[in-house]
Design brief:
Layout: E1 30-39, H1 45-54, E2 67-75, E3 81-89, H2 99-103, E4 108-114, H3 118-134, E5 140-146, H4 158-167, E6 171-174, H5 183-195, E7 202-203, E8 219-220
C-alpha cells in the first residue's frame, strides 16, 4: 500500500502540467523541475513523497488512484533553489497505460522498488525500458530501493541494483520512507545534478563504495 498523497500541503502547487516541454529552469538560481515517480504498487512511492514534502509517514496508507501532485522546494548550498513538481503515479497494472501522460516532459524519473520484493525490481526494470524508449532523451533517472529498514528481509542485493543502475546510466540509492533514511539525499542529490547540468560534478566519498560515481550521495556543491 502507498501513503495517500492527494491531499494539499503547505508546498502543494496547482501549476503542475501533464504536457509541455521538459521542465528544467529558466533562472539558473531558481530551478523548476518536473519529477515523476514510477514503480510497482506497494513499493512506497507515495510514502517517499509524503516524507519529503511533509516529513510524515503513515503506516495506515491507501493506494494512490491514478496519480497525485505535490511540490517542494529545496535550497542548495550556494542559495540556488530547486522546486520539484512531483507526479506520484499509481503502481497498479490498470493504471499503467496512464503513466506516459505523467512522465512526458519530465526532467527526472525516480523508479522505485522494494528491496524485499524481486518482482518489484523486475517491474522497475520494465519502467526503465519504457523511459528509455518513450521518455525525454536527456531525462535523469534514479533507481531507488525503498524499505531499507526491512534489511533483514532483503531479497534484492544493493550490489545487483547498483550494477543495473550503472549499466543504464542511473543514480542509485536505498531509502526508507519509514525512518526517513536517505529521503532528503535523494532529492538534494538530484537537484544538485540538475544544477550542474551533468557537467563539472564534484565527487565525494560514498559511505558504501568510495567514489562510486553512481550513488546520489556522491554529489555535492563545492
Amino acid at each position: 500500500m502507498g501513503c495517500a498523497s492527494s491531499f494539499p500541503g503547505k508546498n502543494v502547487g496547482r501549476s503542475g502540467s501533464l504536457n509541455g516541454e521538459q521542465t528544467v529552469a529558466n533562472d539558473p538560481k531558481n530551478i523548476r523541475v518536473k519529477l515523476v515517480l514510477l514503480g510497482d504498487s506497494g513499493v512506497g512511492k507515495s510514502c517517499i513523497v509524503l516524507r519529503f514534502v511533509r516529513g510524515q509517514f503513515d503506516p495506515t496508507s491507501k493506494v494512490t488512484v491514478g496519480a497525485s501532485f505535490l511540490s517542494q522546494t529545496i535550497a542548495l548550498q550556494d542559495s540556488t533553489t530547486v522546486k520539484f513538481e512531483i507526479w506520484d503515479t499509481a503502481g497498479q497494472e490498470r493504471y499503467a497505460a496512464l503513466a506516459p501522460l505523467y512522465y512526458r516532459g519530465a526532467a527526472v524519473a525516480v523508479v522505485v522498488y522494494d528491496i524485499t520484493s524481486p518482482d518489484s525490481f523486475l517491474k522497475a526494470q520494465y519502467w526503465v525500458k519504457e523511459l528509455q524508449k518513450h521518455g525525454s532523451p536527456d531525462i535523469v533517472m534514479a533507481l531507488v530501493g525503498n524499505k531499507a529498514d526491512l534489511h533483514e528481509n532483503r531479497k534484492v542485493s544493493a550490489q545487483d541494483a547498483m550494477e543495473y543502475a550503472e549499466k543504464n546510466g542511473m543514480f542509485f540509492i536505498e531509502t526508507s520512507a519509514k525512518t526517513a533514511d536517505n529521503i532528503n539525499q535523494l532529492f538534494e542529490g538530484t537537484g544538485i545534478y540538475l544544477y550542474r547540468n551533468k557537467t563539472q560534478l564534484s565527487w565525494i566519498t560514498c559511505n558504501n563504495r568510495p567514489k562510486c560515481r553512481s550513488c546520489i550521495c556522491c554529489y555535492e556543491v563545492p
